[in-house]
């Protein structure tokens, strides 16, 4: 099974560290092949809502690095979206990726159907809007028939929520509770994919 991880952080840091950790955990199983994409080294323009993709049934009028992401999304069985929390929301860069998926949806309304998705978010504060950011990602999943998963009750109700203490990757390494939410979410994701997709 192919798992695509997209890091929505505009810089190297906690989100990238956590996503790579999650993908490494999945790679330890023979059943998974992972792909990592970071937006920080990509040219991805925001959607202009020009509606060209509606008229052409899927062709985006903007030519940039989203083409690589479109291909990876098509092939993925599972999707992990990771983002820092920016004012209680996902990053502008990840939002641009999500919005540009409109072109894929206009190609085929069921293009994402039954893929499985999870979220990893990290904030500078312990309660810095992590669950609000996850809800944005989950809304994208739900609107497009992607099955959203969390790590379950008593720890990871909506997904992986971590606290960087404004110290990037070094900060999240010290967040034992947050790392537990990541482990719970990855474990459920792995278990579900192995049962559901096999």
Overview of this structure, please?
- By secondary structure, the protein is of the alpha/beta class.
- It has one domain: Rossmann fold, CATH 3.40.50.360.
- Helices cover 43% and strands 17% of the residues.
- It has eight helices and six strands, in the order E-H-E-H-H-E-H-H-E-H-E-E-H-H.
- The protein has helices spanning 14-27, 52-56, 66-75, 92-100, 102-107, 130-143, 168-173, 176-196; strands spanning 2-7, 33-38, 78-84, 116-123, 147-148, 160-163.
- Strands 1, 2, 3, 4, 5 and 6 form a six-stranded parallel sheet that branches.
- The termini are close together.
* Percentage of residues in DSSP E strands: 15-25%
In oligomeric terms, what are we looking at? single chain
Number of separate strands: 6
Q: From the helix content, strand content and strand pairing, which structural class follows?
A: alpha/beta
């Amino acid at each position: 099974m192919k798992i695509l991880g997209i890091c929505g952080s505009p810089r190297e840091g906690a989100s990238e560290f956590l996503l790579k950790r999650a993908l490494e955990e999945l790679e330890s199983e023979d059943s998974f092949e992972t792909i990592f994409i970071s937006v920080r080294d990509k040219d991805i323009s925001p959607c202009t809502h020009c509606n060209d993709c509606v008229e052409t049934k899927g062709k985006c009028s903007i030519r940039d690095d989203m083409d690589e992401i479109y291909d990876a999304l098509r092939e993925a069985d599972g999707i992990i979206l990771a983002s820092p929390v920016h004012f209680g929301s996902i990053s502008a860069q990840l939002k641009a990726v999500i919005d540009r998926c409109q072109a894929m949806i206009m190609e085929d309304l069921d293009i994402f159907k039954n893929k499985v998705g999870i979220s990893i978010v990290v904030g500078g504060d312990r309660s810095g809007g992590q669950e609000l950011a996850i809800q944005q990602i989950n809304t994208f999943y739900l609107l497009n028939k992607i099955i959203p998963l969390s790590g379950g009750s008593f720890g990871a109700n909506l997904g992986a929520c971590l606290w960087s203490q404004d110290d990037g990757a070094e900060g999240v390494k010290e967040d034992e509770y947050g790392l537990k939410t990541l482990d719970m979410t990855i474990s459920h994701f792995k278990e579900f994919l192995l049962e559901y997709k096999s």
